[in-house]
Amino acid sequence: MEFGLSEEERMIRDMAARYAEQEAARRAAELDEAETFDRQSFDGMAELGFTALPWPEEAGGAGGGFAGLALVLQELSRVSASLGAALWAHVYLAAWPLMRFGGTEAKQRFLGRLVAGSALGTGMLPGTAAGASRLRAGVTAARAEDGYLLEGRQTYVLGGAQAELFVVYAEMAGERIRPGSSRKRFSAFLIDRDCPGLAVQPVGRKLGLRSAGLAHLTFQTCRVPAGNRLGREGQGSAIARQAEAGARCGLAAVAAGIARGAADAALGYAKARSQFGKPIAKHQAVAFLLADMETAAEAARLLVNQAAWRADAGLADEGRAEMALGFAAEAALAGSIQAVQVYGGYGYMKEYPVERYMRDAKAVQMLKAFGLSPARRSTGKGSGRG
């Protein structure tokens, strides 16, 4: 048994680390304070091939797989979780459903732009759509001539403030999966930001992931061509369920990056800060905190890399992505809180990054709880309709 990265994966990781440290880190605090998305950095990532990384070369991708993408997300989130989360939403919430379920027309119009990163995409969190039959659907779709009319509102879409393409799961108006059933039917659609009837309302004053660009989407008689539907009509929940494992794995990589960033920052500060004639890293109480943070960050990394490797190998998920996300999200939040403790009073100051790590970690935990909760996964069996 051998643990380690291939030569190609090490190159991907090192390239992402250099970009994160030399480009993303410089503006992370400034953009977080201003709640402004860093499109310049996203375009830079696209030029490096990060948006194309997981997709096969025959589809215009870079062939690096989801294991390679997990490495990139960890390195980016180590310095800017908002940037990592934006790339996560672009790949997993927009490009993945289109790559897997898009028809010929939709792929010809949109896929190349998403893979190249020339258009920025995002979508509803899959868990929300998969569990909407028990919660409440925000958007409905009714058949119309040559397409569908969408009505309603989808709130708190990550990346929605700046995205140009959206994947939306909508309840088919007045329909059920079978006569007499209470379960609703859903369909998935790819919608351009310029689509008449779509209004995007940015959301400000957020706790964490402040520069990832949150927004509400409002649909008023929004006409969507039939060619923009993903999969079959009524297949929306099945598409959402299949997207969940990948989305969990990617979000786990973001969380693992936060955990690593917090651990590294705390260790660096503890080595530089002296008290009672020696670095505080040599004081037992602080040393124990640092050891706990390092252990959790390393365990999160291993769980994430394993889940991503299994996805590339085509192995059954068996809850590995869910396990990775659960552990990494807790490691990020606990580790960032411990990092604030190591910094002492300075940890509460925006001059230092650990308070941002703590806020971002809480935001990731909220995404996990309300968007990718395993309790919302449908247990129904059948053709995948509904």
Could you provide a short overview of the structure?
The protein has 386 residues and is α+β, with helices and mostly antiparallel strands. The protein has helices spanning 7-34, 39-47, 65-77, 81-101, 104-116, 126-130, 236-272, 284-313, 320-343, 354-371; strands spanning 121-123, 139-144, 147-158, 165-176, 184-192, 198-202, 214-225, 229-230, 274-275, 278-279.
How would you portray this structure in words?
The chain has helices spanning 7-34, 39-47, 65-77, 81-101, 104-116, 126-130, 236-272, 284-313, 320-343, 354-371; strands at residues 121-123, 139-144, 147-158, 165-176, 184-192, 198-202, 214-225, 229-230, 274-275, 278-279. Strand 2 and strand 3 (147-158) form a beta hairpin. By secondary structure, it is an alpha+beta fold. It is built from 10 helices and 10 strands. The chain folds into 3 domains: 7-116, Acyl-CoA dehydrogenase/oxidase, N-terminal domain (Butyryl-Coa Dehydrogenase, subunit A, domain 1, Orthogonal Bundle); 121-236, Butyryl-CoA Dehydrogenase, subunit A, domain 2; 240-376, Butyryl-CoA Dehydrogenase, subunit A, domain 3. Residues 375-386 have low confidence and may be disordered. The chain is globular, with a radius of gyration of 21 Å. The strands form 2 sheets. Strands 1, 2, 3, 4, 5, 6, 7 and 8 form an 8-stranded mixed sheet that branches. Helix 1 packs parallel to helix 3 (65-77) and helix 7 runs antiparallel to helix 8 (284-313). Helix content is 51%, strand content 17%. The longest helix is centred in the middle third of the chain and has 37 residues, at 236-272.
